[in-house]
Amino acid sequence: DTGVSQNPRHKITKRGQNVTFRCDPISEHNRLYWYRQTLGQGPEFLTYFQNEAQLEKSRLLSDRFSAERPKGSFSTLEIQRTEQGDSAMYLCASSFGLDTIYFGEGSWLTVV
Amino acid sequence: EDKVVQSPLSLVVHEGDTVTLNCSYEVTNFRSLLWYKQEKKAPTFLFMLTSSGIEKKSGRLSSILDKKELFSILNITATQTGDSAIYLCAVGFGNEKLTFGTGTRLTIIP
User: Is the pLDDT of residue B95 over 70?
Assistant: First the structure.
């Protein structure tokens, strides 16, 4: 499978715990994006990378959220001290330059 | 602030019907409008539109953009139960940041 890969697909965590999601983009894609989607809403932009550089962050990305793409390939999104409001599907996507963005299957987070 | 509005929010039709989904937008520095289909998981790409008046087609699906009136439509002819999904419209400057609408939930009754 050469699509965008995310894991874990589902995560249930207790409030206050830290969680980390991983995204492996399509191999030749230099841009990588993180979005968050809650029930009944469209995806909301969180941040994006061009190669290893994080070029834009949404104000939705509080200081409890951090994203990295250390070698310009895979990326991680970490949420520290999770809150119930963090429960959502976290979507990773990738593109080559300004071409079409392709999404991964998403990582569902439930904070209890 | 950039805004994308989709209508209707929900639509139920019988198999074989034709449907039209609407997307209007207010964004600065428009570059492209994209349509995605979402079935319980990640959005899958349908179309990217950058120029007014040029229809894009893929099988029974087609879409067109009007940059003067700031809207796009997605048409699906001869609908099938497999077309049941949420259809998302997104607009962006380049592709750095897409602003999505809330989607139209389409249900096809056999």
Answer: no
